[in-house]
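Summary for the steering committee. One of the milestones for this cycle was to obtain a three-dimensional model of the protein with adenosine-5'-triphosphate bound, which we needed before selecting residues for the alanine scan. The sequence and ligand used are listed below.
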Amino acid sequence: MKDPISLEMEHIHKKFSGIAALKDVHFSVKGGEIHALLGANGAGKSTLMKILSGAYRLDEGTIRLDGRKLNLNSPRDAKASGIHCVYQEVDAALVPQLTAAENIMLDQLASSQGGWWKSPKVLQQRAKDALKQLGADNISIHRKVAELTLAEKQMILLARILIQEAKVIIFDEPTAPLSQEETDAFFRIVHLLKDRGAACIFITHRLAEVTNHCDRVTIMRDGSHVFTGETSGLTINNLVTQMLGKPFEEEFPKTEVPVGDVILEARELRRGLKVRGVNLEVRRGEVLAVVGLVGAGKTECSRLLIGADQLESGEIRLLGRNVCLSQPADAAALGIVSVPEERRKQGILIHENVERNLSLPILSRLSTFGFINRKRERQHADSLVEQLGIKTSSVKQEVKYLSGGNQQKVAIGKWLHTDADVFIFDEPTKGVDIGAKSDIFRIINELALAGKAVIYFTCELDEGMGIGDRIAVMCEGTIVKEFKRGETNQEQLLYYASGGVEVEE
Ligand SMILES: Nc1ncnc2c1ncn2[C@@H]1O[C@H](COP(=O)(O)OP(=O)(O)OP(=O)(O)O)[C@@H](O)[C@H]1O
Ligand SMILES: [Mg+2]
């Protein structure tokens, strides 16, 4: 048998504008293993992997593949050495107007060498075979990629990687937006790639994925390597302690808050196939958790509540009065604000700096005679950065350079000092580390304590149970069941979320 692939990264250093993101990092991975790479938001995981995939240049250090030193100046160099990656933002790697087959064979199509194997028939057959091997042959190779779901698009990328016989595959949080079933299907493929001898590097914030699927784990903290070892024998608690550098207990601290009058009410909301008659209400000081599987219609429902999409029928009442929301700005003006699921596209201005993102909703308050008071803007941003523990080199840093989880904190933080009454969160903890997650729960508690009403849409049932005063279960576009806090459990929620019906006793 051939020796397994071995990849080593040694003494890796990387600075951004003089600030160290990676300090003397060591990382190694072997063929035939799934190696988890863990760390809190901003620990440097993506940066290390961008160096390995040729997207960033390292300042110092060496990378060796099977003992041979690599000089990676571009993603093309990395691919030529057999290093590939699957990011969460799959769209960047796909061409939506092309078919599934063309996307799978994209690199072959783009290469300058011709030959018999470039005939459409041969390419299609190879694409089809690849999907079959992945157990994803339900995807027609003739479909345009634009029409596929996120999970299907990921399959296209995986099929491409399979054909290219990748040696090293980097997975940067691919499972964060997937449902449990999709995640299981995804891992079956990671195991298949591992069994074929690939070295698989897996980044995730869902720690159960590490203990269930990964052979070894490397943990980073503040840009440094802190631990590498076998996962067998490690508990989630061990992992968290290493990640945060301190023991961590409470994930869902919940403060009891007196509940007041109804602030927001939705009656029979309908739009398309996804929202089919939603009724809900939320009171002052109350957190309503709406739980449901991926695809249940939660995002679509939350978009109606903030005017991002228009109602086909139904009513939204704020403090007893009917309101008509044509756009999110209308909702914000009335005191209904949201932290959307796709923060990159909707929640934040990616090319603006942290300070401006945080101050935008209250610019008028920070201005005198139409001029922004820079000092107050600065103070406001500094205090939010401190309050939320946003990891950034300075408030002047552009948000696009923040790590994923820290971008999420900015998307939440910008609303905190507004005088909004209703806060709508759609999957706010996606891609957020466990420490930051508990910060977000703390913030939600503080909002409730200040008499705000919170609606929290999530597919993580335990989060819903942890944070909600009431837990509403959504399935196929309607609320099918509601529970008070403490009166339900995960099995019961899952039963109703997956279409279970009430049995008369
Ligand atoms: N292009 C860049 N310019 C400036 N700073 C950057 C850049 N890329 C990353 N950083 C900084 O480097 C640090 C590490 O970021 P990185 O994205 O590697 O974190 P991460 O471990 O992947 O976090 P997450 O779990 O949130 O994705 C962060 O402080 C980030 O702001
Ligand atoms: Mg990252």
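Key point for the committee: The longest strand covers residues 19-30.
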